[in-house]
Amino acid sequence: MTADATGLSTVTLHSLTQDVLVTVVSWLAFAVISHRVAVNTGHGARWPRYITAWNWCNLLQSLMLVAALAASRLGLPDLLSQTLILVILGWMTWLGYFIARVGLGFGVWQGVAMVALDYAVSQFTQGMMDRLG
User: Fold this and answer.
1) Do 115 and 96 contact (CB within 8 A), yes or no?
2) What pLDDT, on a 0 to 100 scale, did the predictor assign at position 5?
3) Closest by Cα among 40, 64, 62, 59 to 114
């Protein structure tokens, strides 16, 4: 294992690059797909408001998750750390649903479908990156 000028190992740098790529590709893919969904369901005019809220909430959610993971690495007891992460993931799921309902004017099941679509895009992107190595 080699290290670069910053002291990061090649493996760590590769892993970090993959994580950034997965995040960017997943973010862009969901934006494109959600626009098609909004247009096809007759809610296209509301999509800019939806994607704006979704973007800002994703930023906040990512920062909260990173903070929780960092706290875990810094010695927060496992039970507390895992509970915190679970609460954040639950809140992220609810917020995605709420944004779809309010931002797009979707019904209950359409909101659930948008959250499922968001997770599916993320998992698909992560799976593709894992296969690439």
Assistant:
1) yes
2) 56
3) 40
CB atoms within 10 A of CB 97: 20
User: In terms of Cα–Cα distance, which of 20, 22, 12, 15 is closest to 127?
Assistant: 22
Write down the domain spans for the chain: 10-132
DSSP string, the chain: --B-TTS-BHHHHHHHHHHHHHHHHHHHHHHHHHHHHHHHTT-GGGHHHHHHHHHHHHHHHHHHHHHHHHHHHTT--HHHHHHHHHHHHHHHHHHHHHHHHHHH---HHHHHHHHHHHHHHHHHHHHHHHHH-
pTM of the model: 0.79
Token pair listed for 128? 């593709």
